[in-house]
Amino acid sequence: MSTQKLHQMWNGYCPESWLKGKTVRMRLNQWDFYESEETRLQICLWGVQAIILNFRGEGKFRSTPTFGDEIEGGEMLSPQNNSRQPFNSPTVIFNNSEEIETYINSIE
């Protein structure tokens, strides 16, 4: 069980680490996804959505760092439900912290 709740809006930090009470930055990787420097969880920004991808990154970051907490714009956390961009079609957002945690725990 989590030690900290998540809001539906992405704050620019890793949601998986946040649930464990840690503040871990997410950095833009070579595929233009934000990736956690700790857990390799990835988020794709698409309009007003911050889609948590259902596969982990490889730690291959851009040479010039860009961090999610520096650009965060109130995107809504969403699950990946499609294998192609925009990765969330039909559009679905998480309803609560427990849904987000269950989804993250299912990612290999």
Description:
- With 108 residues, this protein is α+β, with helices and mostly antiparallel strands.
- The chain has one domain.
- It contains three helices and five strands; from the N terminus they run αββββαβα.
- A five-stranded mixed sheet has the order 1-2-3-4-5, covered by helices on one side.
- Strand 3 and strand 4 form a beta hairpin.
- The longest helix has 9 residues.
- The chain is globular and about 35 Å long.
- The two termini are 18 Å apart.
- The model has no long low-confidence stretch (mean pLDDT 93).
Key structural traits:
108 residues, alpha+beta, five-stranded mixed beta sheet, 5 strands, 17% helix, globular
Would you kindly provide a brief summary of this structure?
By secondary structure, the protein is α+β, with helices and mostly antiparallel strands.
Largest sheet: 5 strands, mixed
Q: What is the topology, as strand order, of the major beta sheet?
A: 1-2-3-4-5
Q: Helices and strands, in N-to-C order?
A: HEEEEHEH
> What coarse outline follows from CA principal-axis ratios?
globular
Chain-averaged pLDDT = 93
Tally the helices: what do you get?
3
Structural class: alpha+beta
Number of strands: 5
The radius of gyration is: 12 Å
- Binned, the helix content reads 10-25%
Low-confidence stretches: none
Fraction of residues in β-strands: 15-25%
What number of domains?
1
Distance between the termini: 18 Å
